[in-house]
Amino acid sequence: MTTIAIIGAGPGLGAAVARRFGGEGFDVALIARTQERTSRLAADLAAEGITARGFAADVRDPKTLEAALDAATATLGPIEVLQYSPLPHQDFMRPVLETSAADLAGPIEFSVYGPVAAVQQVLPGMRAMGRGTILFVNGGSAVVPDRDRAGTSIAFAAESAYGHLLHDTLAAEGIHVAQLIIPGEIVPGHARKDPAVLADTLWRLHQDRHGFRSFADDLGS
Ligand SMILES: NC(=O)c1ccc[n+]([C@@H]2O[C@H](COP(=O)([O-])OP(=O)(O)OC[C@H]3O[C@@H](n4cnc5c(N)ncnc54)[C@H](OP(=O)(O)O)[C@@H]3O)[C@@H](O)[C@H]2O)c1
């Protein structure tokens, strides 16, 4: 069986996607900064019959991300699905007039250098398999910039452009690249924005394989 690597695997959406894809037979590589938390989540999933392993990496340090993806491939097998969904840091979300050039370094590392490093690392394996899926998950500011969240708005726009370029470039090779926009907050119990519902939406994006951008809910909701 092949592997889904979830970059930014926490207790919310990350765990729900691990359960959804794991339930379909994927092995799951859980990647976040804290080894202990990812290992604990992997143990919880193992108790549910899902093969999962935790790997520590900081997406702002591409070398750690590349090493984690290599370790995941060596431990679990080829990565067929890559999901990039770390939760952006609070200090990226400052008003536009209070955002300096230096303040943009973090958001750009997080939302541009991180995804590019991750994609470059897994793409040779996907091309060798002749199939793959790359999923980007972003908030609504990727589509409508928010003046109070300048860092994420600017960096998400760049991440979206990168994803869209990949979509257009890789479709002919059987590698589907998609972006899910989640407007507003993830809300447990919500009809469209409960983590398990969002995980199901991401599973369907992986299955259906057309179009780049999808919305989990209406913008502004
Ligand atoms: N939560 C919301 O209301 C909301 C709203 C709209 C969109 N989204 C999108 O949903 C996704 C996140 O889902 P979630 O909020 O449910 O989170 P989650 O899957 O519960 O956890 C995300 C994980 O990202 C990890 N992370 C943060 N910074 C990182 C870094 N520098 N390097 C590696 N990992 C890092 C954190 O773990 P460590 O601290 O251990 O690194 C965190 O546990 C993101 O794509 C986000 O843009 C969320």
Relevant terms:
SDR_fam, Oxidoreductase, alpha/beta, NAD(P)-bd_dom_sf, Rossmann fold, binds NADP nicotinamide-adenine-dinucleotide phosphate, 45% helix
Structure description:
The chain is α/β, with parallel strands linked by helices and 221 residues long. The protein has one domain (3-215): Rossmann fold (3-Layer(aba) Sandwich). It has six helices and seven strands. The protein has a seven-stranded parallel beta sheet, sandwiched between helices. The mean pLDDT is 97. The structure holds NADP nicotinamide-adenine-dinucleotide phosphate. Residues 8, 10-14, 32-34, 37, 57-60, 85-88, 137-139, 182, 185-186, 195 line the site of NADP nicotinamide-adenine-dinucleotide phosphate. This is Oxidoreductase.
Q: How do the SSEs run, as a string of H and E?
A: EHEHEHEHEHEHE
Mean pLDDT: 97
Strand tally is 7
- Describe the biggest sheet? 7 strands, parallel
Bound molecules: NADP nicotinamide-adenine-dinucleotide phosphate
CA radius of gyration is 16 Å
- Side by side, the strands of the main sheet go 3-2-1-4-5-6-7
CATH homologous superfamily?
NAD(P)-binding Rossmann-like Domain
Strand content: 15-25%
Termini separation:
38 Å
In the predicted model, the low-confidence regions spanning at least 5 consecutive residues are none
- Helix segment count? 6
Whole-number total of structural domains: 1
**Broad CATH class:** Alpha Beta
What best-fitting shape do the alpha-carbon axes yield? globular
Q: Tell me what the CATH architecture is.
A: 3-Layer(aba) Sandwich
